Amino acid sequence: MLDKIAEKFGHEFSYDEALIGHAAIEATGEALPEESLQKMKNSDAVLFGAVGHPKYDNDPSAKVRPEQGLLKMRKELGLYANLRPIKLFDELLDASSIKPEILKGADILFFRELTGDIYFGEKGRKNNGDTAFDNAEYSKYEVERIARKAFDAAMTRNKKVCSVDKANVLETSRLWREVVQQVAKEYPEVQVEHQFVDAVAMLLIKDPKRFDVVVTANLFGDILTDEASQIAGSMGMLASASIGDGTGVYEPIHGSAHDITGKGLANPMASVLSAALLLDISFGLKEESNAIISAVDAVLKAGFRTGDIADASTPKDKILGTDAIGEEILNRL
Amino acid sequence: MLDKIAEKFGHEFSYDEALIGHAAIEATGEALPEESLQKMKNSDAVLFGAVGHPKYDNDPSAKVRPEQGLLKMRKELGLYANLRPIKLFDELLDASSIKPEILKGADILFFRELTGDIYFGEKGRKNNGDTAFDNAEYSKYEVERIARKAFDAAMTRNKKVCSVDKANVLETSRLWREVVQQVAKEYPEVQVEHQFVDAVAMLLIKDPKRFDVVVTANLFGDILTDEASQIAGSMGMLASASIGDGTGVYEPIHGSAHDITGKGLANPMASVLSAALLLDISFGLKEESNAIISAVDAVLKAGFRTGDIADASTPKDKILGTDAIGEEILNRL
Ligand SMILES: CC(C)[C@H](C(=O)O)[C@@H](O)C(=O)O
Ligand SMILES: CC(C)[C@H](C(=O)O)[C@@H](O)C(=O)O
Question: What CATH code is carried by the domain that includes residue B164?
């Protein structure tokens, strides 16, 4: 797709490849080898695959795990803001388990904090291994910078921010709410609401249209954005951008889905749309980005589907595999 | 309802009342006064209202808050297992934002751990108040006893347990998974799966029928059960039981909903069904419990609805207020 964009719009993209996760562990013993990290730092943007491997999931005691590579990358590249736009292509209105009339018009932009919270605090065992602990932490500075990103984005959209926390229980959430209340003062035009995470988990399904920009902590963002993927019909449709002060990383929100490896069933659109986000956010190539989105849209309009977004009414011959639907997108570029 | 049950089945119930949350703070300055706690301990079961008040939500620095009463009660009464049955009354199939064909037949029993995790670990501020922290902790013993409750329940149902964690990131989750794997060995007939919390947030909406018993930690359970309330059409339908070694507590899963206080809009069914759970679990009065459930069902079959469970096809005169629908239930007892 990127080569085609380069050709069409007269750019030149140069590529480098680097290992992370399970593949890196197999090759080097490390989940994120120094060489990979350097390559990323030397690049203008990173297009990311997906990490995870069932081998580690069923072995809670494994010392090296694929996810460590992902988390280290986020930390080392300072990727504190994870943007997850949730928008339904009109043609997929019936693909979701949620009723079309509830979904129609929903358009949410999530800002998930990505380098703090319980993901990066001290963790371990005590009492002879009998007790495990994970520490969650947030500093005012960490909350402030992600909040500001969310409010800035809201100013270019419907000027609504929903900040999600669990301030009735957590001290980190109380700090979160204080800081968001402070930042909000700088954006008098933006309408702000504070909601508890449990309520939002419910409201996202009950009434997704009430949301515009949602900003939340790392763990809550992890859970809520996966849930919200159902608003877009399937996880296979959702791209994300992780940005900070340096190189940005673009990745589908889905995992590595080893249960379907090699079967040609994976929906490549989340990856393709991640490349579109990359062009837009890291390179400022809005027109090129839109060209990719339009190509995906055209494929959907032509009735083609991967299995995850097909519904009962999709004719069998319109259900394509990973490569074939990729070709259809390419042809429309 | 309970008086009517007593009359019909020849029992005698004696009642006591106690303050907790905002009402207790106003009256005594404490969220759970010692007197209330003693009354609970001296009772065979507690039928609980709901806590929370907007006054505290917008003041992250408040020192005494309603939720502290709830959490202290859970801890002091040793209520480590929170049961949240998610079952849709047939008549409400169209009330949900999720498609009826996705919902039909869904029947999930959640076991949420209720006295551990990040709710009860050390929390506070450091670096001159600049950083907030919350510590999550689980001991093997804590995981074992809730896991055992879940497996015991699965044996009386469809013999499937889904254990939910975030073992790819959290040490508490890795301990959780280890212990659940151990306990599972004692139940060879039960089919176990381990899922990450983000995946379950998505699967609950995509395919709720795949779940039978779900067991998870305190925070994940808080989020997932509120989300799952949409499977039952509305939070206003969901009852819960909190049990441990002493007095059991029965409460609707919804909050105190101050935005509709005094308007007669609240759906009382979650409270009514909590009384049914109380009769069943704490008193072993199965027939009496079923009588209440049948009365609720009969009211729904007769077409009556509160606003939260009405849909576009509900005739205006069938939409009743809190008291009126309560009367309808009572009349059918
Ligand atoms: C793989 C995992 C560690 C990761 C996360 O929890 O952040 C993933 O779920 C995500 O959302 O990118
Ligand atoms: C009120 C709040 C502290 C409580 C919780 O988080 O446990 C509530 O959401 C619940 O689920 O009972």
Answer: 3.40.718.10
Tell me which chain A residues have a C-beta less than 8 angstroms from the C-beta of B194: 57-58
Give residue B87's pLDDT.
87
Q: Do B133 and A130 touch (CB under 8 A)?
A: no
Q: Let me know: does B303 contact B313? Beta carbons within 8 Å.
A: no
Give the closest ligand to the alpha carbon of residue B22: 2
Per-residue confidence (pLDDT) for residue B63, from 0 to 100: 82
Residue closest to B250 by CA, chosen among B77, B11, B25, B35: B77
pLDDT single digits (tens) B227-240: 999 998 888 899 99
Interface contact flag, A169 B71, Cβ < 8 Å: yes
| CB contact set of B207 (below 8 Å; sequence gap of 6+) | A97, B102
Burial (CB count within 10 angstroms: exposed 0-12, middle 13-18, buried 19+), residue B97: buried
Q: Which of A184-198, A217-231, A254-268 has the lowest mean pLDDT?
A: A254-268
Closest CB to B97: pick one of A102, A201, A235. Answer: A102
- Report the percent of chain B where pLDDT is more than 90: 83
From chain A, the residues in CB contact with B141 under 8 A are 130
In contact, A70 and A20? CB cutoff 8 Å: yes
Strands A239-243 and A248-252, sheet pairing: antiparallel
**pLDDT tens digits for range A280-321:** 999 999 999 999 999 999 999 999 999 989 888 889 999 999
Asked if pLDDT for residue A60 goes beyond 70, the answer is no
Tell me if A191 is assigned to some domain. yes
> How many domains is chain A built from?
1
- Cα dist from A167 to A209, B131, B166, B175, B222, whole Å: 24, 15, 21, 26, 14
Residue with tokens 């699965």: B154
The number of C-beta contacts closer than 8 angstroms across A and B is: 189
- Write the single-letter amino acid at B13: F
pLDDT of residue B195: 96
Domain span at residue B167 reads: 96-232
Chain A nearest-CA residue for B72: A169
Inspect the interface and report whether the beta carbons of B227 and A202 lie closer than 8 Å. yes
Residue A29: which of A61, A64, A58 has the closest Cα? A64
Would residue A226 show up in a list of annotated catalytic residues for this protein?
Answer: yes
Question: Is residue B319 situated within a structural domain?
Answer: no
Determine, yes or no, domain membership for B191.
yes
> Which atom of ligand 1 sits closest to the CA of residue B169?
3
Taking an 8 Å cut-off on Cβ atoms, the answer to whether A230 and B60 are in contact is no
With a cut of 80, say whether residue A226 has pLDDT above it. yes
Annotation says A149 is catalytic: no
The overall average pLDDT reported for chain A is 94
What distance in angstroms lies between residue A215's CA and the mean position of ligand 2's atoms? 21
The pLDDT of residue B94 is 86
Q: pTM, whole model, 2 decimals?
A: 0.94
The stretch B286-307 carries a mean pLDDT of 96
Dihedrals φ, ψ of A297, to 5°?
-60, -40
Does any domain span residue A180? Answer: yes
**CA atoms of A79 and A218, how far apart (whole Å):** 12
Helices (H), A185-321: 197-206, 218-228, 269-281, 286-301
The secondary structure of chain A in percent helix, strand, coil, rounded to multiples of 5, reads 45, 20, 35
